[in-house]
Amino acid sequence: MSKHILIVDDSKTVRNLVAFIMKKEGFKVTTAEDGLDGLEKLYSSEGVDLIISDVNMPRMDGFTFIKTVREQDTYRNLPIVVLSTEGQEKDIQMGMSLGANLYMVKPAQPEKMVKNIKMLLG
Length: 122
Fold this sequence. Notes:
By secondary structure, the protein is an alpha/beta fold. It has one domain: 3-Layer(aba) Sandwich (Rossmann fold), CATH 3.40.50.2300. Helix content is 43%, strand content 19%. The radius of gyration is 13 Å and the shape is globular. The two termini are 14 Å apart.
């Protein structure tokens, strides 16, 4: 059975691009347009194996989303990758301190993204 990835990004273009890359690698993909939508999809899903999340989003930003996910025992060890245009040290430190496993700055190279995700999924 293929691993399930949840992609959370307010940009439809980015969601579609990352989903295309992940599906091409054989992953099952669900997309969400912001943190609130992401939580809804996470809770209603049959099991997500990894989350890829943006930082700047309406309604609920990526940092709040990660913090909310990490506060729940069920998702404490779920791998989370931040994929954001925010590449300043303070943003990276914030993402990592809230529980992200990896912080990648857009535009990320597809090969590198896939390699890192496969590594996180074991």
